[in-house]
């Protein structure tokens, strides 16, 4: 049994382990190659976050999904490169919008070179992803375009906020479906499709990826409140400090509006205050950790994770299916 990929995923079958490891190695080589430019500075900027690491969660899903067809088919590795490049490009743009100072333990591109270079580097990565994608055929281009539209739509909806009295929780879950679920779904879809798996298998894995992607992000929401920095890899309460209303906060506000309890209203007021003050931030974090809203967010995470697990039921029993099931377990574990 060997640990590969994010979350310490255990692959029990030696042949599957070899396929996944070889695939991920090939993807890494492909990412380094496709991010090279004739202009050395562009290469440096384009490989800045790539060389800083990352989970390679999406390429792992491509490799596992490909096991339901021919995992050695020529389109499998390039499709994983496309998905990871797209994800990487969005990180450059996200860091500009969020004014982030760091990413993956290194200074963000916008901190190091300024917003213009960061945005243009993200554009360069999108262009390189499109170049690789063109060799995978018109259907792959269409799928990627639809997913990218959903991703951008999710980002716009997050920026605009809920409109016309829409429920904030429903709005937020739709945002996550676009921003995160869409690309994770494409990773599973490409892996199955490029391997020549049956269309029914492609559909099942696409649905799995969509739900797993949302569950993965919701688990991060819970971790931001509940974990220490060693467990989560980032400072606890980062989203709180930046005023980002993730699911635990939205569940708190929902409860405060529904029940009108003084302590809930007071906590909402505290969260709306200036949390750059360390004492106020620590108080808000402690209160939210003890609040029922955090447990509700955990239950929401588990619900999406279990929907991902249920989506896999029609697939034949095999080691790849077991690994995909274990990814669901890992997401649930992250949420506590």
TrEMBL record:
Obligatory cofactor(s): Mg(2+)
Protein name in the entry: Geranylgeranyl pyrophosphate synthase
Recorded superkingdom: Bacteria
Keyword Metal-binding: yes
Keyword Transferase: yes
Species this chain originates from: Streptomyces olivochromogenes
Keywords attached to this entry: Magnesium, Metal-binding, Transferase
Pfam families: polyprenyl_synt
Family the entry assigns: Belongs to the FPP/GGPP synthase family.
GO biological process, one term: isoprenoid biosynthetic process
InterPro entries for this protein: Isoprenoid_synthase_dom_sf, Polyprenyl_synt, Polyprenyl_synt_CS
Gene Ontology molecular functions: metal ion binding; prenyltransferase activity
CDD domains (alphabetical): Trans_IPPS_HT (cd00685)
């Amino acid at each position: 049994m060997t640990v590969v990929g994010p979350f310490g995923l255990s692959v029990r079958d030696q042949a599957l382990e070899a396929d996944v490891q070889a695939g991920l190695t090939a993807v890494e080589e492909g990412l380094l190659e496709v991010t090279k430019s004739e202009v050395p500075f562009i290469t440096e900027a384009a490989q800045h976050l790539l060389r800083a690491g990352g989970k390679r969660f999406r390429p792992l899903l491509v490799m596992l999904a490909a096991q339901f067809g021919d995992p050695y088919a020529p389109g499998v590795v390039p499709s994983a490169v496309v998905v990871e490049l797209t994800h990487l490009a969005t990180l450059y743009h996200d860091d500009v919008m969020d004014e982030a100072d760091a990413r993956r333990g290194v200074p963000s591109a916008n901190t190091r070179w300024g917003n213009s270079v960061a945005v243009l580097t993200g554009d360069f990565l999108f262009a390189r992803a499109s170049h690789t994608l063109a060799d995978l055929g018109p259907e792959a281009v269409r799928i990627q375009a639809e997913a990218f539209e959903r991703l951008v739509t999710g980002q716009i909806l997050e920026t605009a906020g809920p409109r016309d009295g829409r429920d904030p929780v429903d709005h937020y879950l739709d945002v996550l479906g676009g921003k995160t679920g869409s690309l994770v779904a494409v990773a599973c879809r490409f892996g199955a499709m490029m391997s020549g798996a049956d269309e029914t298998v492609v559909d099942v894995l696409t649905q799995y990826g969509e739900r797993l992607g949302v569950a993965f992000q919701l688990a991060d929401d819970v971790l931001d409140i509940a974990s220490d920095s060693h467990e989560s890899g980032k400072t606890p309460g980062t989203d709180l400090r930046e005023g980002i209303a993730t699911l635990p906060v939205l569940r708190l506000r929902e409860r405060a509006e529904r029940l009108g309890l003084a302590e809930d209203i007071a906590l909402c007021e505290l969260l709306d205050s200036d949390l750059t003050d360390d004492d106020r931030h620590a108080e808000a974090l402690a209160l939210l950790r003890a609040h029922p809203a955090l447990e509700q967010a955990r239950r929401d995470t588990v619900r999406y994770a279990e929907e991902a697990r249920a989506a896999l039921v029609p697939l034949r029993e095999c080691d790849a299916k077991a690994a995909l099931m274990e990814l669901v377990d890992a997401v649930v574990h992250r949420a506590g």
